[in-house]
User: Fold these one by one.
Assistant:
Number 1:
Amino acid sequence: MRYLLIEDNLKLAGAVVERLQLDGHAVDHADRLDAATACMDVADYDLILLDIMLPDGDGRDFLQRQRRAEKRTPVIVITARSAVSDRISLLDLGADDYITKPFDFAELEARCRAVLRRQGGAADNQKTFEGTILNLTTGELQFGDSSTNLRNRELRLLEVFFAAPGQVFSKSHLIDRMFSFSDEASENAIEVYVARLRKRLEGSGARIETVRGLGYRMIAA
Amino acid sequence: MRQPTSIRKRLFYQLAAVAAVLSLAFVLVVRGVASQAAEGTQDDILAASATAIADSLSSEQGEVTLELPYSALSMLGTINEDRVFYRVTVNNETLTGYADLPVTNAPTRLDTPAFSTEIYRGDEVRLTSILRRVSNSATGSKVVVTVAQTRSGLAAITQRITVTATGVGLLFFLLATTLSLLAATSALRPLSRMTGAVTRRGPSDLRPVTEDTPAELAPLVGALNSFMARLRSSLTRTEDLITEAAHRVRTPLATVRTQAEVTHRKLNKPEHKQAIRDMIRAIDESSRSAGQILDHAMVTFRADSLALDPLDLAALITETCDRLAPTADLKDIALLRKLPDGPVPFKGDGIMLQAALHNILDNAIKYSPEDSDITVRIEVNSALHLSITDQGRGFGDMDFESLTTRYARGANVGDVVGSGLGLTIADEVARAHGGRLELSHNKEGQGACVSLILPYV
């Protein structure tokens, strides 16, 4: 997915860009509103992450200008204000969602997915392996005539395998991708989810193989 | 410890003391005047009697004779049963009467009665003597007529008057005391009205007092109002400072947290990963606490001037659930909504209710196991029952009452990050709306059920 991050704090912006790139996203960064406008003129983004306090203006004005100009690119506001009243006014201004600093990237991703799902956009945000199609936004898994919707954790796990078919992933890497930092996850939990995915993938061209002592990988069935 | 002084009591005691002094003075004056008047009457009668006796004196062949007129003594007999004594002396020789009746107050001027009080035969007597010169032969004889009477009648009169006066005085005292009690109460009524107006307020209602106040209290009310204005501005400043501080801290925290996530991904050693994980949890904990503290402050602030806006609770629940759904989704938790068809109208403060709901749901998500359901229900009967049921670890054996106290956390929270303010916020929102928060166990299995019970206004 392609993100535009509008954030004036360079340290934070740098970290966010790096973090999103780790998940395989393309991220452009603008530290001012005029730079953001310039970016939007030359590229299409799936999602905009917008900070409110910017050196050349208020992020809320930018948001309103976007909405008046009928530009429908979803916007998730990154705010330092946690009060309910602040949040409500953001949604009224046309933000699709907001997230309070400091934020969990798993949650940010979940919110992005939810926003995109609501918009019905990013239908092409999907990956294919051996005739099996995984939609990363909706969590829809398609092969042959069958179509199922994965639950969040199943999707996050399968996403890892779809990003690099054939590559072996260790259990601890999979734990990192699947669980939040507040969850207490065990390696057994991974086995449970892998078992579920195997069931989901039954009859498809893909299967998940256990590599003894190393972890799991996805290969052609 | 010093007892606090009561203006009402002081006013009452002072008024009562004045009434007592006045009553006493009244009794004394009446008694004095009455006994003086009685004495005066006795003296007049005694003098008249003595004069009548003196008028009956005559001189026959150089001898002074007396035809004692009966009326002279009978006029004295009218008073009670007092005994009457008399003595007539001619040139200091007793002519008739009681020879031992003392004449200590021998008058020196003619026909002018002299009075005195003596003890005679064991009783107190009042004596009157008048001097007459009865002329016979060459020299006139000096005749002294003395009439005396005991004073028991007088004492009886004085006593009667004293009793009456004391009664009247006592009555006056009681009446004055009652009136002063009423006066003290009524004089202080504006003060207690004002006290009531201030006492009935919420703990942070700092609007100025606008009740009608008498001129004497105006400076006090003015001082109170200006004090409250200063307090309010200082509170607002503190609130702004807290909010501002919370905001300032959030951006660097976000930087640290993001960098930690990146680092976590790059590290391989489990102990290093665990260290970063702990760091991220600490950041999440502080962020969550800051959010709840601000929410709590907001709820307390808004509770004092509760806005009663017409709103749709079903829409509010849907919105809050939508908002939290991605968070729940991370743990594969489903937020089930069992709401009535159509809107659920309610009058209340939408922001507060959202804060309450958000905190309850946030709690429920936090304490729920993965792959579970959280059910939000509205049941409408005499009041609105908004309940959130989860399948988590429940409240265990915790005392429900204590869970809603500030910063109190359940005994079974284990490793879950929390500040203990979530249920307190919900409880305060419920109470601000005249309702209550009810904690119970999930009736359909394991878990907790938190209900907001909101009466219709």
Number 2:
Amino acid sequence: MTEQKQDAPLLEQEFTVEGGDFIHAGEVSSKIKRILKDIGISQEVIRRTAIATYEAEMNVVCHAMRGKFRLAITPDKLVIVVQDEGKGIEDIDLAMQEGFSTASEQVREMGFGAGMGLPNIKKNMDDLNVTSEVGKGTRVEMGIFTEQ
Amino acid sequence: MTLGEMKDVLDAEVLIGDECMDIEVKDAFAADLLSDVLAFAKEGTLLITGITNPQVIRTAEMLELIGIVFVRGKKPDEDAVKLARIKKVPLLSTRYIMFETCGRLFSSGLVSCMKRVEND
């Protein structure tokens, strides 16, 4: 029985993002983009994934204390799971609506907090699953097929 | 229109990317809201903005934008310039306000990356 399990990832990597660190915000997305380029993922998929991971990374920086990004690459799909420690989301349906935001004034002055983050992740990825526990943190799982 | 021609039209200063002036610019997007840039700008689009923090460079990197024009005489902060140099994002600064900048570029033949948003 040499057959590999279908969903066993070819590559798995973990990254940490610190909440409130606006100077380094985006570095993890940049690293993930680099990895996807190096392994020859198509331009379109890289771009869509980069936008989604950057939105997710800004969410952690703006709203949480810290977050872990786990990138898993299988033969037909990229899956990124973001688990943060933070205040969580009270109403996920509301958070998924364009224009809804709880971002601080500081975040808005930087050009974010327009309530477009999660909707933009949804637009760019093939699937998105958000779960949250208030006072504990939020888990965002997003996937995209490598062949579009 | 090339970045160099755009520099002339906007009487702009090149902050990063003197060697990129021959690059052709196909279309543009203008906003001070990075959330909107991330949602609407396309690959290779020129960004016209008044936002000067490092996140604007990150946004350009993620979207693979062709370059950034800062309006109203704004200049990016040191961290942003450093990052732009590493990521090779051309940066220009013009004293024209955003409306005038867009108008001048549009009159010179540069088009929008999208005309309008879809209906809900």
